[in-house]
Amino acid sequence: QVQLVESGGGLVQAGGSLRLSCAASGRIFSTYAMGWFRQAPGKEREFVAAIWWSAGSTYYADSVKGRFTISRENAKNTVYLQMNSLKPEDTAVYYCAEMYGRGRLRVDSEYDYWGQGTQVTVSS
Could you give the CA distance from residue 96 to residue 57 in angstroms, rounded to a whole number? Predict the structure, then answer.
């Protein structure tokens, strides 16, 4: 059974930074891609960023482009989300997800496994 464990969330002032981590364990097959999504209260879950595991190509939502950076550490089966210049509208529960087969990176239903989420709160 695959497990994804996020960490690194917390409370930060606007303009500050946080680094989220997502460690994967129990994998049997090769990962195709990993992504970060977020869900704010009363809103639908939305795509934040994704990375192709082998090539390292990255993709971002327009709302975070230039402020967030997704990266991976293959040896540790870990993906990171560096979040800079945080805004109050970035407040949400952040989830990492793993995709095994080829799929659409920005679509949450295309991912196979999900972490439990970590809260990020940005105060104004």
Answer: 17
